[in-house]
Amino acid sequence: MIKNGNNLNDSLKENKPNYNNFSYHFKLFRSHNSYIQSPNIRYKNNLSIVVILISFFAVLFATEYFPIFFASAQINTPIVSTRSLFNPNTGEMIKNNSLPSALSLLNINHCPGKLGIFVHGWWATDVEAKEQTERAFLSLQQSGYNIPIIGFSWPSHTDWSISKNIANKNGPLLAEFIKV
């Protein structure tokens, strides 16, 4: 045996790691990831699943028997859209259709007194416009304002200069939409 530690057997006897050995890296990996095998962690994971299931069933029970405590959004937030009226590449109007009135979207014949109209900003898809309108309704409802909300969607998912042009052309359409 060589005394200067150059022999592999000397390295193992002195408990020095052999960095070229695959089993050393595997053991190192296992030691750092041993928490996965820990029974305490398995218990905590099972406990988390149980807590989530209990929470889920508690919410189902509560909404079934105590629905007054849970704020509900408008079932279908009405949205009027001018997306099909404009060419999103040029900003030019391609159809000259009239929009339904705001009252017809709410299925009422009288002025509701208060009405919220949400117009989304630049670069919103039709799905994002619907989500933003519903979020605005929920925010107003959470703040104590129980008024109907209507979304006004326009083709904003295009170049900035084209979007500004389309937005300016939507102004008169919006005015016609809210006219009683």
How many domains, as an integer? Answer: 3
The number of distinct β-strands equals 3
Rounded to an integer, what's the Rg over CA atoms?
A: 32 Å
Q: Helical segment tally? A: 6
Portion in helices: 40-55%
Beta-strand content: 5-15%
Structural class: mainly alpha
How many angstroms separate the termini?
102 Å
Q: Whole-number average pLDDT?
A: 75
Shape: globular
Side-by-side strand order of the widest sheet: 1-3-2
Order of helices and strands: HHHEHEHEH
User: Ranges with pLDDT <50 over ≥5 residues?
Assistant: 28-44, 66-73
What kind of sheet is the major sheet? Answer: 3 strands, parallel
The oligomeric state is single chain
Can you characterise this structure?
It is built from six helices and three strands. Helices cover 47% and strands 7% of the residues. The chain has a three-stranded parallel sheet, with helices on one face. Mean pLDDT is 75; it is low at 28-44 and 66-73. It is mainly α. The protein has three domains: 1-32, no CATH class; 38-70; 79-178, no CATH class.
Notable features of this structure?
three-stranded parallel β-sheet, 47% helix, 180 residues, 3 domains, globular
